Amino acid sequence: MAIVRLKAGHVRPVWAGHPWVFAQAVARVEGGATAGDEVDVVDPQGRFLGRGLYSPSSAIVVRIFARQPNVALDRALLERRIEAAARRRSALGLGGPDTTGYRLVHAEGDALPGLVVDRFDGALAFQLGTIGMKRREAAILEALERVGGGATLIDRTSPAVARLEGFVAGGGVVRGDPSVRELRCREGGIELRIPLELGQKTGFYFDQRPLRARVEELATGRRVLDAFAFVGAVGLRAARGGATEVIAVERNALALEVGAELARLNGLSDRLRFVHGDARETLAQAGRRGGYDLVVCDPPKLAPNAAARRRAESYLRELAATACRATRPGGMLVLSSCSAALGIEEVTRAVATGGAEVGVRPVVVERLFQGPDHPVPAAFPEGLYLSTVIAELPPP
């Protein structure tokens, strides 16, 4: 077994439970590890800290999967951990008749770093995020088949991540029904059908389930603008919640078509309208026309890494300012960030400074994060990547 020995001063986070070993923390690698191998991580004195999978071409050279020595990431362990993840979701009330789509395996949150799996009715969409998990793909598929009860398995691995890790990404149906062309599930009773060619990440943004449920509660009697709609999942919940009107803005033409079909499928077309356009331009136009009672802004990832943080903060502040103008006095603004580099403090600051730029002082009434099917180890702050602020604009 190869050994990754840490430098002095870099031990405490790993000792406390952080699952990542960064390249700058490594003093040396002993024993000739190759990409995807299991390695033991030790402190400068040789004391065992954990066992993980080695990714020499990544800034995260080891992702730890066990804190006990002599534990192998074989099919039996994969199966036990996927079963444990499934039990955790069942205990959360997921998988019932009203909600059949959810995150089944959330990488580090389920002690399976480099593996993400989403459940869609009779299909499991998965992503392999490390060379180590790619080398164990056959065992992963066998474990998913067993735990998933024969579900169709769909590979949604990111080609960009695969290139970084040094392997070729797969794609499409790898086991099960090869005729599957869309991902189907229900969320809170809402029917969702996402074509494979459209799906983002593993196919859908299950992490925003808490926000969508809250928007449904807040939408009653309000005019709602969803500025980054994708297939309109937020708008569907707002319309069902009793909004008088919902405008969903998206620049992806296929997403608009899918959203309109979902509105028809769920009997909500009379109150939900899809508009092809740029979200920021639509927000600016709304501000000039008197605005909306509830404005939802959930932009794509702005800061994929720390280097992009300053530019992303500036964009988020400008977006908040434009969104404040688009929100009527006494109305509510929702602003989200799906970048760990822009957490709840940065989103709150963007709402405050953006509001100040246009002469309003928003009051934060709620803060939301990713849903409980996206668990986060206590020692892993990077795992809390989704932050949402719901703010009220002062009445006239």
List keywords for this structure.
globular; 11 helices; 20 strands; 396 residues; 6-stranded mixed sheet; alpha/beta; 7-stranded mixed sheet
Biggest sheet: strands side by side, in what order? 16-15-14-17-18-20-19
Strand coverage percent = 25-35%
Please outline the major beta sheet: 7 strands, mixed
Secondary structure tally, helices: 11
Roughly what percent helix? 25-40%
Distance between the termini: 68 Å
Q: What gyration radius follows from the Cα positions, in whole Å?
A: 22 Å
Detailed description of the structure:
This protein is of the alpha/beta class and 396 residues long. 30% of the residues lie in helices and 29% in strands. Strand 17 (292-297), helix 10 (309-326) and strand 18 form a beta-alpha-beta unit. The longest helix has 18 residues, at 309-326.
Brief overview:
With 396 residues, the chain is of the alpha/beta class.
Layout: helices, strands, pairs:
Blueprint: E1 2-6, H1 12-16, E2 20-22, E3 26-30, E4 38-42, E5 48-54, E6 60-66, H2 75-91, E7 101-106, E8 115-120, E9 123-128, H3 131-135, H4 137-147, E10 152-155, H5 159-165, E11 172-175, E12 182-187, E13 190-195, H6 209-218, E14 223-226, H7 233-240, E15 245-250, H8 253-265, E16 272-276, H9 279-288, E17 292-297, H10 309-326, E18 327-337, H11 344-357, E19 363-369, E20 387-392
Parallel strand pairs: 1-4, 9-10, 14-15, 14-17, 15-16, 17-18
Antiparallel strand pairs: 1-3, 2-6, 4-5, 5-6, 7-8, 8-9, 10-11, 12-13, 18-20, 19-20
Helix pairs in contact: 2-4, 6-7, 9-10, 10-11
